[in-house]
Design a protein that fits this description.
The mean pLDDT is 96. By secondary structure, this protein is α+β, with helices and mostly antiparallel strands. The protein starts with 10 loop residues before the first helix and ends with a helix. It has one domain: GH92 mannosidase fold. It has helices at 11-14, 22-27, 32-44, 59-67, 85-88, 92-106, 122-132, 195-199, 226-231, and strands at residues 134-135, 143-146, 153-157, 163-169, 177-183, 186-187, 192-194, 203-209. The radius of gyration is 18 Å and the shape is globular.
Length: 233
């Protein structure tokens, strides 16, 4: 049921609010593989809900049903990070699929351009970052998860005079998966990039494909997780 301990959401959406420790949260449900299956369930489960403590239907309930992506309420803050958790457990191809689908289906330049209210620019910010192919999964940590860019090319001019160049080669509505990636001309297997590397002047090139690149990742290839940091102390 929605409400009570859950703000504008229910347990389907808010049980994942541990952005800073995807691996630690995965341990509680049996490990990364089991965690991935639970995420799969979230994105495919019918969008049904109980009004709970709200004692009536609020607009966020209507909007998440309209999104049509299971229990994923892409239009509201409790769900913003959910597709990025896949990258946190070593399944970045699923992050790529869901972020590209959300960017394509839920945002446009028309009067229905947002799937929900923008809430101080949060919805727009999610789209801009995701469409560029970067997202700050852990608030306050100087790193970004890398995903599938919707734009073929983006150049950001920084106050320092340096630039961030993001290029997606072979990009299309069909080619939503990243086959390989380079940063400043060097092969990049990490699913994240540090803030320092980004603002230091980064040229990120993603080779796109219509097939997911399923692979085993090294621990250092995964985004920040508190479990790893604590273990290394």
């Amino acid at each position: 049921a929605w409400g009570g301990p859950y703000t504008e959401s229910g347990p389907w959406q808010s049980s994942w609010g541990v952005q800073h420790d995807a691996l630690g949260l995965a341990d509680l449900v049996g490990g990364p593989a089991a965690f991935g299956r639970k995420l799969d369930d979230l994105f495919t489960h019918p969008p049904i809900f109980k009004t709970g403590a709200y004692n009536g239907v609020i607009h966020e309930m209507i909007e998440f049903v309209a999104v049509g992506m299971g229990q994923y309420g892409a239009c509201n803050q409790p769900s913003f990070h959910l597709p990025y958790l896949y990258a946190g457990i070593g399944q970045p191809w699923k992050t790529e699929y869901w972020t590209r689908r959300a960017c394509r289906e839920l945002f446009n330049a028309g009067p229905d351009g947002f799937s929900g209210d923008d809430d101080n620019g949060s919805n727009a910010s999610w789209y801009i970052l995701s469409a560029m192919g970067i997202y700050p999964l852990t608030p306050g940590h100087p790193s970004y998860v890398l995903t599938s860019p919707e734009f073929d090319a983006v150049k950001i001019h920084l106050p320092s005079g340096k630039t961030i160049d993001l290029t997606a080669k072979g990009n299309s509505e069909k080619n939503v998966y990243v086959r390989s990636r380079t940063v400043n001309g060097k092969s990049w297997t990490k699913t994240w990039i540090s803030h320092a590397d980004l603002v230091g002047g980064a040229k990120i090139v993603s080779e796109m494909s219509d097939r997911p690149t399923v692979r085993n990742l090294k621990p250092e290839d995964l985004p920040y997780s508190a479990k790893t940091e604590l273990r290394n102390r």
